Amino acid sequence: MPRPLLMPSRSMVRRMFAGASVLATLAAGSAPARAQDVITKESAAALRASFVADLDTLHQKFLGLAQAFPQDKYSWRPMDGVRSVSDVLMLAAFEGYSFIPTSFGGKAADLGSREEAAKLRTLSDKTQVIEHLNKGFAHAKKELEALDPATLTGKRKVMNQDRSAADIVLFVGGDLHEHLGQLIAYARTNHIVPPWSK
Considering only CA atoms, which of 80, 78, 50, 54 is closest in space to residue 184? Predict the structure, then answer.
């Protein structure tokens, strides 16, 4: 004998309809967004201002950690083949000197010859590292603020990929936040509390 069909209750139908609506919304949101490919000059200016504000925050956090680490920990690294504390800080400085501004169409800082720039990357003196950290972030901010927002409305080739300004913000910002997280882990491992979380 066949089983009788159960009719869903009214509340069950509502839940099923609500679930289908959420799935439809998520599916629509995951489709490629053409609006991201080209943005207006005004939107580009707002995006740049937001990114510059994030850079200020990142700068203060890198600086706080740079000051919190004692000089004798600047050469500390969790294992061979991994960046030391000073390596991570100088990487952040160099991203300000070059990677950040050039990704958006700005100019890299003049750090002399390749050999001179390579030598800077190996600095481990706390005072000098902090000086370059400040100069690197200041250079990036100056270059970004000097850019005409109209130049940010199209796509640029960054790391061999065509990227919109929004993509570049996520890519470059994500990289900096990753290195900040790395430095926070270094600090915690060495029983150093990040200044902003005391």
Answer: 78
Give the separation between CA 164 and CA 83, rounded to whole angstroms: 30
Residue 37: alpha-carbon gap to chain centroid: 20
DSSP state letter for 80? T
pLDDT digits (tens, 9 = 90+) for 155-177: 999 998 899 999 999 999 999 99
Non-local CB neighbours of 64 within 8 Å, separated by 6+ positions: 194, 195, 196
List all residues 6 or more positions away from 111 whose beta carbon is below 8 Å from its beta carbon: 97, 117, 120
Which of 193, 183, 57, 192 has its CA nearest to residue 129?
A: 183
pTM above 0.85, yes or no: no
Packing angle between helix 85-94 and helix 41-68, nearest 10 degrees? 150
Using DSSP's 3-state secondary structure scheme, residue 163 falls into strand
Q: Which of 56, 164, 143 is nearest to 100 (CA)?
A: 143
**120, 91 Cβ separation under 8 angstroms:** no
Cα 126 to Cα 89, 154, 196: the distances in Å are 10, 40, 20
**Angle at CA of residue 46, ends 44 and 47, nearest 5°:** 65
Choose among 84, 82, 98: nearest CA to 172.
98
